[in-house]
Amino acid sequence: MRGAFPVNKIAWKNDMILLQKLYIVVLNSIYKITNKIPNKIRHGIIYLTAAALMSIYLILDAYAYLGISMTRTNKTILGCFLLLIIIAMSINGNLHMVIWEKKITILWFGSGICMLVISLFHPIGEGLRATILAMLFGFPCLYFVWHNRNDYSTLYKLIARAFSHVFLIYFTLCFIFVPMGEQTLQNGRYLATTFNPNALGMFCGVAMFTALYLISEKDKWFGIYFFQIASAIGFAILSGARATMLVIILELIAFFIYYGRHMIRNSIEKKASILILIVLILTLLFSASYIPKHMMKDTVKAEEEVNEQQKPTVQSPVNRFNPEGKNLNEISSGRLTVWKAYLHSLNFIGHNGNKPLYYSGTKKMWAHNTVLEIAYRCGIIPGILFLILEIYSAIYMLSCLFRGEYVSWKLFSILGVGLFCIYSILEVVIFPFEHSPMFVFFIAIMPMFKKEQKKELRNYKEI
Predict the structure, then answer these.
(1) Sequence spans of domains, the chain
(2) What's the whole-model pTM score?
């Protein structure tokens, strides 16, 4: 079989040739079975698998509400199984060698291999070694398949639709069956079925991202995604998750820039595009005012009836967004102190990830920063490599946002990378099958791995 891989030794070394050979042998054998399945059905299976993944995120995050729990290792095993289904259903022809971009390949595999080596010397935390193996073998396999297909928008639409449809069902059920009350409030912050208001916030951030992408694509029945946006913003405000509000604001800014650059300039669709923007702005105003008030009114009314002579003790989560009288550490809920503690403890071999860090006699369970968490568990070198990987991805995102022609999948990468970068600074998101922003990031950077050729390749080699 013929592939688009040039015959020179340097390229063979730099492009993980042995790994690609392994993928070709295994996946081409799988394709002999899956090619009997119609393409439409295979896409339907990808959609259902992605919907199952998001449903699992929501179900397992509601362990305090539903009583269903699972270890991080088992979550990763289940997630890898679903990923393998997506990979198998994505193959649409015999696979050939492709050229991978050298810089991001070194950062990706370098950080993963360093973390894996460290894990052989001391525990780095339950589930993290399995996650590293998924990072080194599972996700690159998915990239390889879609690099051969070269139609990323197909996968992005299927994943965005699946996630969005699950979110639409989830938000609707929460509106009806999970009102604000004693069981769904934590310090006045709404957490719906999740164990933590910030966890609800992350789901809202991902829901905002998928809805904006599908609206930009004018996906079939895309009008329902305005309801998803309204729900995501309303629930994010009720959760008091400031990181999520920052994510939503930046997502909207990026959307308006990209949409304005490419959609409104098109004279054929100019009127329709402007109408969509008007409806989106009205949706933002509605979600920021009506939904939080509607969800809170019954809670405040009930408390007023109990405390007729007293001021209601239910505090609006909106107060968390008021910086008046607070220093930067208070605004960040003590994150500056936590970051300082973790920075002081960093070394080259890492620490036992199953034991919390104690700083000034206080237990610090998480670094509230993905890079710091990786560096604390696995050492400074993999932490630095992953930091550079994030920066490199962010530069790529900004390049897609401000330069180049319109490509339908680019907004997915722009919003997906931006979403993760913000959360990685303020939260700990290191498990792609536990934290949906991490999974989104791993999918969004897929196009970065394929080296684009400026000239047609004339030399080929049969595999």
Answers:
(1) 100-145+332-463
(2) 0.89
